[in-house]
Write a structure and sequence with these properties.
alpha/beta, 9 helices, globular
Length: 199
Amino acid sequence: MSTVPTSDQFLALSCSNVGVGPGGTTSMVARVSIVDYRGSVVFDKYVAPTMDVRRAVTDYRTSATGITQAHLYSGDAWAFSVVQQYVASLIKGKILVGHSLWNDLSVLGIPHPAVATRDVALYQPFRNALRSPHQVVGLQTLAWQLMCRRCQEGQLHPLENARAALDLYRSHADEWEAAVMKGNWPCALPPSTFSRCYL
């Protein structure tokens, strides 16, 4: 990018997942939340499962996410294919902010240009500040250590997570964008097993 991006070019994304398969270890998207640069809700929907949830979902992760079978079968839940198309069109041409975005992009099945991501889990100055240069630091730890802000207390909430990631980004936006403009990408690489999530 040759110019400093404007606030209308940014969206922050966070997803909540349920577990499918043996032991519920495979994630299936159950809720998608997107906010704009000011933290206002752009999209927040539960995702109806693509298969019979009573047999497919083996762990709702309710204690962590608050999601129950009722959320996924409500009249307000959108079909996965509709959510996928809608979100893909929303984020196209946008700079995507989040924490561990590879997880969100993976469960959505949507690739995004790596240069148009601002992943606070990969931002090297945050990692260095917490003396963890080679490992992903959780959003809760980043928010508390760098902004004295509590998040993810009790249950995970994707709107809160998207806003917390956005606030972390905004706290270093000038330095981050200056590095990008100079061609000095300030982030570590995401796990190589998720390379399909990036264009």
